[in-house]
Amino acid sequence: MTEQEQFDKAAEAIGRAKHLAVLTGAGISRESGIHTFREKGGVWDTVDAEKMATLEGFLADPEKVWKWYMGRYESVTAARPNPGHTAMAELERRVPAFTLITQNIDGLHQAAGSVNVVELHGSIRRIRCLDEGTTSSEWPRPGDALPPRCKCGALLRPDVVWFGESLPERAISDAFDAAGSCDVMLVVGTSAIVQPAGYIPIEAGQNGAFVIEVNPEETAITSLVHVSIFENAGSALPRLVEAAFK
Ligand code: BJW
What we know:
By secondary structure, the protein is an alpha/beta fold. It folds into two domains: 1-33 and 81-121 and 167-246, 3-Layer(aba) Sandwich (Rossmann fold); 35-78 and 123-160, 2-Layer Sandwich (SIR2/SIRT2 'Small Domain'), CATH 3.30.1600.10. The protein is 39% helix and 17% strand. The strands form two sheets. A six-stranded parallel sheet has the order 3-2-1-7-8-9, with helices on both faces. Helix 7 packs parallel to helix 11 (233-244). Residues 25-28, 30-31, 36-39, 42, 53, 103, 105, 121, 160-166, 189-191, 193-196, 215-217, 219, 232-234 line the site of ligand BJW. Ligand BJW binds at residues 25-28, 30-31, 36-39, 42, 53, 103, 105, 121, 160-166, 189-191, 193-196, 215-217, 219, 232-234.
């Protein structure tokens, strides 16, 4: 199939979808200025994931991990949604049933107007008490003592999912329910390396869904999807939505 044929097939499937599920990763926020993880110059090129994105790393040096997350919080809250995010919010308004599953912690889908968002890896816009599990959006202010502590005295942490930690139960069950019931799945801007998120499109495909991938590069699931659009999300997604509902 030519690139144009693949694009047309994807648009046709989206236009006909009764339940469309979308899985997004860091690539969809790249054009909002947020780094991806595993590309050259990505997050894991500059920091050690074992030290910064595991509970063990956090407990070994909570101040260092908090300082790093404070910087990331600042860049995420300064970022704005791009046309890729906006196109996903538009899809939600057009398709009869729609589930947006994201691995991103940046909140940019919600900022673009998406409502039904399943956050698999939590949100950098919330903090959580390590003991009580209670969450709040009261992020520490620049100059506050780090690490911040809960009123109960326990350490507070960013409400994100680190390596070796379970994903939020409700999010994982909503995501796999959608993979089991959607007729079309669109996978955008993820290497699909991290599990269990990377398995969601595979599950959808095994359940008979038509799986479309939008990514400038090949990924761990490219050989398993029905159609690949090798483009940036910010340019491909608005055109895809327009072509699907013309
Ligand atoms: C564009 C673009 C543009 C660029 N447009 N596209 C062996 C087998 C199976 C599992 C494991 C295993 N060994 C270990 C595990 C478990 C582990 C795992 O999967 N590890 C892998 C690295 C192998 N998973 C876990 O630990 C998970 N928990 C779990 O499994 O619990 C059960 C368990 C418990 C105990 C032991 C074992 C299992 C939790 C995973 C948590 C992931 N957390 C992070 C950090 C979040 C917080 C933070 O940000 O600070 O989540 S890691 C990071 O990766 C982040 C992301 O959400 C996640 C996925 O990354 P993503 O989005 O795919 O980004 P990239 O960079 O990989 O890809 C970007 C893509 O965009 C690229 O393809 C580009 O081409 C593309 N792109 N520009 C469109 N403009």
